[in-house]
Amino acid sequence: MTKTLDIAWLAGILEGEGSFQFTKSNSPVITLKMVDEDIINRVSHLCKKHYHEDRTPTRNGNQVIYRIQINGSIAIGWMLTIYSFMGKRRRAKIREVVEQWKNCDSKYISLDTFRCGHPKIPANTIYSGIYKVCNTCHKAHSKRYRDEKAKFKKAILS
Length: 158
Hints:
Elements: H1 4-17, E1 18-22, E2 28-34, H2 37-47, E3 52-54, E4 65-71, H3 72-82, H4 88-102, E5 125-128, E6 131-134, H5 135-157
Protein backbone atom coordinates (compact mmCIF):
# COMPACT_ATOMS: atom_id res chain seq x y z
CA MET A 1 0.00 0.00 0.00
CA THR A 2 1.34 3.41 -0.97
CA LYS A 3 1.73 5.91 1.88
CA THR A 4 0.06 9.33 1.77
CA LEU A 5 3.47 10.96 2.17
CA ASP A 6 4.73 9.14 -0.95
CA ILE A 7 1.63 10.20 -2.90
CA ALA A 8 2.16 13.82 -1.82
CA TRP A 9 5.85 13.61 -2.80
CA LEU A 10 4.92 12.19 -6.22
CA ALA A 11 2.34 14.96 -6.70
CA GLY A 12 5.01 17.55 -5.94
CA ILE A 13 7.41 16.09 -8.49
CA LEU A 14 4.69 15.88 -11.15
CA GLU A 15 3.47 19.39 -10.31
CA GLY A 16 6.90 20.77 -11.13
CA GLU A 17 8.28 18.44 -13.78
CA GLY A 18 5.47 16.20 -15.07
CA SER A 19 3.03 16.50 -17.92
CA PHE A 20 -0.53 15.21 -18.29
CA GLN A 21 -1.85 14.56 -21.80
CA PHE A 22 -4.49 12.79 -23.81
CA THR A 23 -2.74 11.51 -26.93
CA LYS A 24 -4.01 11.28 -30.49
CA SER A 25 -4.25 7.52 -30.01
CA ASN A 26 -6.88 8.12 -27.29
CA SER A 27 -4.64 7.28 -24.37
CA PRO A 28 -4.16 9.29 -21.17
CA VAL A 29 -0.46 9.73 -20.37
CA ILE A 30 1.64 11.02 -17.48
CA THR A 31 5.23 11.76 -18.50
CA LEU A 32 8.18 12.76 -16.34
CA LYS A 33 11.62 13.62 -17.75
CA MET A 34 14.63 14.73 -15.74
CA VAL A 35 18.37 14.26 -15.35
CA ASP A 36 18.13 13.04 -11.74
CA GLU A 37 18.10 9.26 -11.98
CA ASP A 38 17.53 8.82 -8.24
CA ILE A 39 14.25 10.78 -8.44
CA ILE A 40 13.10 8.90 -11.57
CA ASN A 41 14.02 5.63 -9.86
CA ARG A 42 11.86 6.53 -6.84
CA VAL A 43 8.92 7.45 -9.11
CA SER A 44 9.47 4.19 -11.00
CA HIS A 45 9.34 2.23 -7.75
CA LEU A 46 6.19 4.03 -6.55
CA CYS A 47 4.32 3.61 -9.84
CA LYS A 48 5.68 0.14 -10.57
CA LYS A 49 6.73 1.24 -14.06
CA HIS A 50 10.15 1.00 -15.67
CA TYR A 51 12.04 4.09 -16.79
CA HIS A 52 14.59 4.48 -19.54
CA GLU A 53 17.12 6.90 -20.95
CA ASP A 54 15.57 9.34 -23.39
CA ARG A 55 17.83 9.25 -26.43
CA THR A 56 16.38 12.27 -28.20
CA PRO A 57 18.88 15.08 -28.84
CA THR A 58 18.82 17.72 -26.11
CA ARG A 59 20.16 21.16 -25.39
CA ASN A 60 21.59 19.87 -22.09
CA GLY A 61 24.86 18.84 -23.68
CA ASN A 62 25.98 15.42 -22.55
CA GLN A 63 23.61 14.97 -19.61
CA VAL A 64 21.52 11.82 -19.74
CA ILE A 65 17.79 12.46 -19.47
CA TYR A 66 15.68 9.78 -17.83
CA ARG A 67 12.04 9.32 -18.73
CA ILE A 68 9.10 7.48 -17.24
CA GLN A 69 5.70 7.30 -18.89
CA ILE A 70 2.47 5.98 -17.39
CA ASN A 71 -0.32 5.18 -19.87
CA GLY A 72 -3.95 4.16 -19.99
CA SER A 73 -6.17 3.47 -17.04
CA ILE A 74 -3.15 3.32 -14.73
CA ALA A 75 -2.41 6.97 -15.64
CA ILE A 76 -6.04 7.88 -14.91
CA GLY A 77 -5.78 6.14 -11.54
CA TRP A 78 -2.66 8.12 -10.63
CA MET A 79 -4.20 11.38 -11.85
CA LEU A 80 -7.20 10.85 -9.60
CA THR A 81 -4.96 9.80 -6.69
CA ILE A 82 -2.75 12.91 -6.77
CA TYR A 83 -5.50 15.35 -7.81
CA SER A 84 -6.10 16.84 -4.35
CA PHE A 85 -2.38 17.65 -3.97
CA MET A 86 -2.11 19.55 -7.26
CA GLY A 87 -2.33 23.27 -8.03
CA LYS A 88 -5.15 24.92 -10.01
CA ARG A 89 -3.51 24.63 -13.42
CA ARG A 90 -2.60 20.95 -13.05
CA ARG A 91 -6.04 20.13 -11.63
CA ALA A 92 -7.65 21.75 -14.67
CA LYS A 93 -5.40 19.71 -16.99
CA ILE A 94 -6.19 16.49 -15.11
CA ARG A 95 -9.94 17.22 -15.33
CA GLU A 96 -9.54 17.84 -19.07
CA VAL A 97 -7.67 14.55 -19.64
CA VAL A 98 -10.12 12.54 -17.51
CA GLU A 99 -13.08 14.10 -19.35
CA GLN A 100 -11.55 13.25 -22.74
CA TRP A 101 -10.90 9.71 -21.54
CA LYS A 102 -14.48 9.32 -20.25
CA ASN A 103 -15.89 10.49 -23.61
CA CYS A 104 -13.58 8.26 -25.66
CA ASP A 105 -15.12 5.14 -27.20
CA SER A 106 -11.86 3.19 -27.15
CA LYS A 107 -11.45 3.38 -23.36
CA TYR A 108 -13.19 0.02 -23.13
CA ILE A 109 -10.30 -1.53 -25.02
CA SER A 110 -7.79 -2.26 -22.33
CA LEU A 111 -4.73 -0.09 -22.74
CA ASP A 112 -2.96 -2.26 -20.20
CA THR A 113 -2.73 -5.38 -22.34
CA PHE A 114 -0.43 -6.51 -25.10
CA ARG A 115 -1.80 -6.95 -28.65
CA CYS A 116 -2.13 -10.66 -27.93
CA GLY A 117 -4.55 -9.88 -25.07
CA HIS A 118 -2.27 -10.94 -22.20
CA PRO A 119 -2.04 -8.45 -19.30
CA LYS A 120 0.74 -5.86 -19.39
CA ILE A 121 1.88 -6.33 -15.80
CA PRO A 122 5.46 -6.43 -14.52
CA ALA A 123 5.33 -10.20 -13.97
CA ASN A 124 4.38 -10.75 -17.63
CA THR A 125 6.61 -8.11 -19.21
CA ILE A 126 10.15 -8.48 -20.50
CA TYR A 127 12.22 -5.94 -22.41
CA SER A 128 13.67 -6.49 -25.84
CA GLY A 129 15.79 -3.39 -26.31
CA ILE A 130 13.40 -0.52 -25.62
CA TYR A 131 10.29 -2.55 -26.40
CA LYS A 132 8.04 -4.28 -23.90
CA VAL A 133 7.28 -7.86 -24.88
CA CYS A 134 4.65 -10.28 -23.56
CA ASN A 135 6.56 -12.86 -21.53
CA THR A 136 3.86 -15.53 -22.03
CA CYS A 137 4.04 -15.25 -25.82
CA HIS A 138 7.84 -14.93 -25.75
CA LYS A 139 8.15 -18.20 -23.82
CA ALA A 140 5.76 -19.96 -26.24
CA HIS A 141 7.70 -18.63 -29.24
CA SER A 142 11.01 -19.71 -27.69
CA LYS A 143 9.67 -23.20 -27.00
CA ARG A 144 8.43 -23.55 -30.61
CA TYR A 145 11.81 -22.35 -31.88
CA ARG A 146 13.72 -24.83 -29.68
CA ASP A 147 11.40 -27.69 -30.73
CA GLU A 148 11.81 -26.88 -34.44
CA LYS A 149 15.57 -26.59 -34.03
CA ALA A 150 15.72 -29.97 -32.27
CA LYS A 151 13.52 -31.54 -34.97
CA PHE A 152 15.77 -30.12 -37.69
CA LYS A 153 18.91 -31.33 -35.91
CA LYS A 154 17.42 -34.81 -35.50
CA ALA A 155 16.47 -34.94 -39.21
CA ILE A 156 20.02 -33.98 -40.25
CA LEU A 157 21.69 -36.48 -37.94
CA SER A 158 19.50 -39.42 -38.95
